[in-house]
Every structure is written in C-alpha cells, then in structure tokens.
Specification:
Structural class: alpha/beta
Strand content: 15-25%
Number of helices: 9
Number of strands: 9
Distance between the termini: 45 Å
Largest sheet: 6 strands, mixed
Length: 214
C-alpha cells in the first residue's frame, strides 16, 4: 500500500468527492469547482440577474451563513436545491429555471451527464434562460458561459505547492484548495439568441477580482 509518510495531493475532485475521502493527515485536495463567491461574481459580471438557481448534492459547498453574506454583498437571491437520488434532473432544472433568472451548473454527474445534458440545455433555450457552467464543453454545447480551471492551471498550482513543501519542510499545506487561476469560456451565439451583450474577458476578470478582493 501507499506509505503514510508520503504526501498525497488529490486534484480535480469535486466538493462531494472530497467529503467522501478518509481524513488522513498528509492528504491534500485541489478542487474542480471554483469557490461559490467566484461563480456568483462571474454571473454578476455577465448578467443583470437578481436570482440564481443551483443544484447541490449536499450543502457542503457553502454554509447558510456564507450564502446569506454572498446574497447581501452581491444583491442576488441564491435558490439552492439539495439533490436527492429520487429527483429527476430535467424536471429539477426546469423548475429552477422557471423561478430564477439563471442556472449555475456545478459538477455533479448525477445531474449533468451525457444522458441529461442535451435535454437540460434545450430546456434552458426554450425558457430563454442562461446556464452558467463549470465546464467549457457545456459552453460548446449551448451553455452561455463557464469559469473553470484548466489542467494547466491545476498543474501549475500543484507544482508550486510541491516546490513549497520541498523548499520548506515546516510548511503544512491547507487540506483543501480552490484553483487560484482560471479560464473563461463564452458562447456568443447563445448570448445573441438571449439578446444579451457580453463584456469582454478582461472586464469580466476585473469585476470578479473586485468582488474577491473586498
């Protein structure tokens, strides 16, 4: 088996997967998701929305107190649905899209997968509501936009972390990291069909940074 003295860094895992890991002292994780604040700041930079629906497997991603603080600071209502195994992904998405201005799609293979994605994107198109995603592939398929960490972003961050651990043996990494750099994907064809004009990527990054540095 693996030596327990060798540090292990898990990368590209979801919040939900992180919470399934056995807690071991020298295991560290770099998440696939962006922090919720970054997703919401991204949506705020893109769209004049007042409410965002999202589906989570559990409320791991953020505490109620954090959500309330984010709602207040960003002037957004976060309509969260906690996903149950008995839920129908398409019906859940339809319900959230009808009630809200946009849907934030978070990594969850039970909800967003090759069997459901086409129907979900078609539903959003028919309801004339944007989907903001964690995946550039979703943007190619018909989501409006995505904010995501590329393999290069994650690789650079892991290399930096490993170098720091090697240079400074007293350094103890955090148990959990989000990506510190990210990419943006936009679908201008979808924006046109929704009669939206999207800011350029530099403006979006500046708006996200402003929120994150407050």
């Amino acid at each position: 088996g693996l030596s327990t003295t060798v540090p292990v860094i898990h990368s590209y895992i979801t919040h939900f997967e992180y919470h399934q890991l056995k807690s071991v002292s020298n295991q560290y994780s770099l998440l696939l998701e962006q922090p919720l604040e970054r997703y919401l700041a991204f949506i705020r930079a893109l769209l004049p929305v007042t409410s965002v629906g999202l589906i989570e497997k559990d409320t791991y991603a953020s505490s109620p107190r954090q959500k309330t603080a984010l709602e207040k600071s960003l002037g957004l209502v976060i309509d969260q649905h906690v996903y149950q195994a008995s839920d129908n992904p398409l019906a859940t998405v339809r319900q959230l899209l009808r009630k809200n201005d946009a849907l934030l799609s978070l990594p969850d293979n039970d909800v967003y997968n090759r069997h459901t994605l086409k129907g979900i994107l078609l539903t959003a198109y028919r309801l004339k509501k944007p989907i903001i995603s964690y995946s550039p592939a979703h943007v190619k398929s018909g989501a409006l936009a995505a904010i995501y960490a590329s393999p290069d972003n994650i690789g650079s961050q892991i290399a930096g972390l490993v170098n720091h651990m090697i240079r400074d043996p007293s350094f103890t990494p955090e148990k959990l990291y989000y990506a510190n750099s990210y990419q943006i994907a936009l679908n201008h064809r979808v924006a046109k069909s929704l009669e939206l004009t999207l800011p350029d990527k530099a403006m979006i990054r500046a708006a996200v940074l402003k929120v994150e540095s407050q």
